[in-house]
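Data availability (excerpt). The following record was deposited with the supplementary files.
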Amino acid sequence: MRDTSLDDYRTQGVMAAIDAVQKVCNKIKIHATGYCLGGTLLSIAAAAISHHH
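Predicted structure:
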């Protein structure tokens, strides 16, 4: 996985999970908690989402 970037973890991990939850739950707001590297990825995803809106 040497060619996997931090952005890949954001898009294929965090954002894919958020998209799946919103699809099942009809686009509800999501409250999330992340610890250690998961918290870092969640913070990056939240910043990217707020940048696009």
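Summary of structural features: The chain has one domain: 6-52.
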